[in-house]
Structures are given as C-alpha cells and as structure tokens.
Amino acid sequence: MTGPSPIPPKIVALRGNPGKRKLRSAVEPPMPPQPPEPPGCLTGYALDEWHRLAPELHRLGLLTSLDVMPLAAYCEAHKV
Questions:
Q1: Which residue has the higher pLDDT, 4 or 79?
Q2: How many CB atoms are closer than 10 A to CB 79?
Q3: End-to-end CA distance of the chain
Q4: Inter-helix orientation angle 44-59/68-78, to 10°
Q5: Per-domain residue ranges of the chain
Q6: Secondary structure of residue 58 in the 3-state scheme
Q7: d(Cα 40, Cα 28) in Å, to the nearest integer?
Q8: How far apart are CA 11 and CA 18, in angstroms?
Q9: pLDDT tens for residues 51-71?
Q10: What region does 49 belong to: left with phi over 0, alpha with psi -120 to 50, or beta?
Q11: Phi, psi (5° rounding) for residue 36?
C-alpha cells in the first residue's frame, strides 16, 4: 500500500470533515460497564489516585485492560 496510513475515524470526527466525505466505520471492542480493578500492588496514595482517575478515564473510553499496568505505574510514581 502506498501513501500515508488512513486516519482513524474518531480522529477525523474530532478534526472535522470539511470535505464531507463518507467516514468509514470504526470497529471497536465493546467496553465493559465498569473500569478495570486496580492491581493488588497498589496501596495508600497510589490506590487513591487509581480510584480518582480510573472512573473518568473509563467513561471517556481511554481505559482498557491493556492500560492497567501503565496507569498503575503512574499511580505509584504519583505517590512519591
């Protein structure tokens, strides 16, 4: 395939569609109703930070099961 990679439909929707071209549909896995549980290694302030961020990130569709450990690492770093 030549040329640049296609831009994901969500990005096109955010940027706007000035050419009024038909957008291709995005195939996404279904989101679970609740955010993922925090890893057992989080305690204290790190766990508080998880409970502060996880619901909002999940609501925005930015927190999946693949993001658990990076978010846990952030929470651990935040407590320092």
A1: 4
A2: 13
A3: 47
A4: 140
A5: 9-78
A6: helix
A7: 28
A8: 13
A9: 999 999 998 888 888 899 999
A10: alpha
A11: -60, 150
Six token digits for residue 69: 């450990």
25's CB contacts (< 8 A; 6+ apart) are 9
Separation of alpha carbons 5 and 18, rounded Å:
19
- 10 Å CB burial of residue 2 (0-12, 13-18, 19+) is exposed
What average pLDDT does this structure show over 4-31?
77
Sign, CA dihedral 33-36-25-27, equals: negative
Place 14 in a pLDDT band, splitting at 50, 70 and 90: confident
Q: Where are the alpha helices (DSSP H) in the chain?
A: 9-15, 44-59, 68-78
Q: What is the mean pLDDT of residues 15-44?
A: 83
Residue type, 72: A
